[in-house]
Batch of 3 targets.
Target 1
Amino acid sequence: MANISTGGMFISTEEPIRAGTRMVVRFELPNKHRVIAVSRVCYTKKGLGLGVEFLNLDDDDREEIETFIASLKAKEGLRA
């Protein structure tokens, strides 16, 4: 997971997956919360990875991702 928002994420992978492909994405946040979301590949970067859009993210998963992003922003604020 290289980049994440409540709308989707970038997944680092060398596996070629065509844009438009629907897939189930499963990942674990640092607090051990497991997210499972039906997603759609929006774009690919050959040899680097792919960007996916979450098509159905439940409220608990959305809140956990928002909390994770807020913690990253807080850490960045400490470094500035």
Target 2
Amino acid sequence: MKLKSIAVALSAAALMLSSNVFAADFPTKAVSLVVPWPAGGGTDILMRIVADNASKRLGQPVVVVNQPGASGSIALRDVANGDRSGHTISMIATGFITEQYGSPNAPTLEEFKVLAFVGTDPTVIAAGPSSGFESLEDLVAKAKDEPGKLRNASPGGTSAVAVALIESLLGIKLTNVPYSGTAPVVQAVLSGETQTGTPSVTEIASQHQAGEAKILAVASSERHFMAPDVPTFKELGYPIVYGTMRAMVAPADVDPDAAKVLEKVLLETLSDPSFQQTAKDAGFSISPMPGAEATTFFQNLDKEIYPILLDGGLVKVRQK
């Protein structure tokens, strides 16, 4: 009996030791940061800034891997079902909540371990030079005269919810044209392929500043520092505050020791003043939050968005 107790104690000690060794050794190779959108969009730019800065703290490179398709669902499904060692992570945004109700193949929040909240970029509605729109009032008048005729470029997800809110509160109907990411959305607006687009402010601010496109309104509580000349929807009489809210994730059953290392490194990175300034210079607002708080945040966001999706006919699966 005594020998058995000693064996059990030694076994437990070995397990603790192996766990501590893993935590100390992690990562043992480069960490892949899967971005479920094409290169060149706002999320891609921000994740590359995160990867570059996190690499310095992690002791191994953090390599961005772009895997676009199906509004991010393909990449996120692969990550959720993939490597549990912590060497493959990804990010989710507000649109992730939308996709889980639009596709049976899209993963749900429960399939991920949220590592850290990154920040929020408000959605805008922007018009191309050939549209003739100089204000939101111009767009509303045209849309009411010709319901459904105006084409709006959208990457789906967050943008799809924004469009549903805009249509509902402005009393208009747009024809939503899906694109595989925000970079193609901006190009569609600039080329006149669509009259308007609904990316985040970061993704089209430089084109607005250059006079190549015109942001008509921004969905934030106050004017954005990247486009201070643009009124908010609230200023114009429409209570729309909405945008791309991003968080870093790993598979739900990721090794807990690796998850602790990743969360610590990501929070240190996101809280670093130098990183925050670099992000701000690129147009991003950073508001870091630990994994547990971020999980609760997205759970509450799910509850808030679901009725909007249901009213807009966007709930195709997992109806509650």
Target 3
Amino acid sequence: MVFVLSLDGGKKKVANDNLILTARQKEVMRAVAKGDTDAQIAYDLCISIWTVRSHLADIFSHLDAKNRAHAVARFLVLELCQVPLNDLF
């Protein structure tokens, strides 16, 4: 179970242990985090803009995100939590 602390100090369930974004979804999220537009992402990944939007809809659902910024914040937290502590120091 993955939990994220909310701003009011409570915990909110984000996802279960089966939440793993696909490699492509992670590529899309890294591009979103850089500030790329849907069109830029589509061009860079050689996919249609509709595929980008489909990936984003799936990602938003998985991460329980309301918008791009919210999805990036949750994605970065989940990515950071997967790094062994030894790699941080």
